Amino acid sequence: MSETPTHPLDDPAADPFEVARTAAADIARATGVERHDIALTLGSGWAAAADLIGETVAEVPATEITGFSASAVVGHTGSIRSILLPSGKHALVIGARTHYYEGHGVRRVVHSVRTAAAAGATTMILTNGAGGIKETWKPGSPVLISDHINLTADSPLEGATFIDLTDLYSARLRELARGIDPSLDEGVYTQFRGPHYETPAEVQMAKAMGGHIVGMSTALEAIAARQAGMEILGMSLITNLAAGIQKEPLSHQEVLQAGRDAEAAISDLLSRIVAAL
Question: Any alpha helices (H) in the chain, and if so which ranges?
Fold first, then answer.
C-alpha cells in the first residue's frame, strides 16, 4: 500500500485551490482579519518593509497555516503577518517562500499566492533578490520587473488552462512606483531552476533572449497570481551582477550582505509604494 501524503498538496488528487481556501480560513482565524486587500511576498533584503507599511495586527508562524512549510532559505522570516495600513486596508505579508529548487513541486511554490487570492487580495507584490545583467546596475539597486522568461520548464497551470500573460506585470503599478521614485529602472526577469547560480554562458543566453535579471523565484508565482485575477507588481533587489558580468565568484553571503546594506532604503521605497495603492 502507498503511504498517505503528509502534505496536503503532495496528493495528486487534492484540489490546490481548496487547500488555498482552507489556508485562507486559517489565516482569518489566526489574525482575526476576515479579508486582506493586498499581499506581499518579501524576498531577500525586503523583509524590513513589513515594519514600515502599517500596524501589525497579528503574526503567525507559516507552519501553523495549512499547506505552508518552514522557510528553507536564510533571509526569509518564515512567518505570515496581517498589517493594517493607514488607508484602512489590510495587507498580508508572506515571509515564507517555497522555492522551486526545494523539490516540493510547483503547487507548493505557488500556494502562498493562491492563499493570498483566497484571502481576498486583488494586488500581489512579488519581491526578490537577484543578479543583474545590466552593467550599469549596482548592488543594492531596486528594479521593477516588466516581464519574465520562465526557464523552469514548468507551470502552475494544470490541464487545458490557458491564461494570457501579455501584460502580466502591471504597467499601471510600475508607473505608480516610478511616481514614488522616478529613478527606478525596469527589466525582464529570468527564472532559472536553481539552486546553483547561473554559469557565465547561461547568463549570456539569458541576455541574448532579452533578460536583464536572473533569479530563482517569482515567475511561477506571477503566473499563478494572474490565474487568480490579481494585479501584479514585481520588484528585484540587484544583490550582485550576474556570473561573468562581475568577475568575482558569487556567494549567498554576498546576496545577504547586499540585502542588509540596502534594506533601509528599499523598505522605505516599498512602504511608500504600498501607501499609494
Answer: 16-31, 106-109, 111-118, 171-180, 200-209, 219-227, 252-276
Closest CA to 128 of 228, 223, 47: 47
Q: Residue 257 — pLDDT band, cuts 50, 70, 90?
A: confident
- Which triple of cell numbers denotes residue 154? 514548468
* Cα–Cα dist 194/106, whole Å: 14
3-state SS assignment for residue 238: strand
Q: Is 18 a catalytic residue?
A: no
Among 173, 174, 132, smallest CA distance to 262 is for 132
6, 93, 196, 214, 240 from 78: Cα distances, Å: 20, 11, 22, 23, 24
* Residue 237 half-sphere exposure toward CB, CA atoms < 13 A: 28
Dihedrals phi, psi of 39, to nearest 5 degrees: -125, 145
The residues that bridge with 236 in the sheet, in sequence order, are 128, 143
How far apart CA 246 and CA 64 sit, in angstroms, is 41
Name the active-site residue from 34, 102, 198, 231. 198
pTM beyond 0.85, yes or no: yes
Sequence-distant (≥ 6) Cβ neighbours of residue 108 within 8 angstroms: 7, 9, 10, 67, 69, 98
Other C-beta atoms lying within 10 Å of the C-beta of residue 103? 8
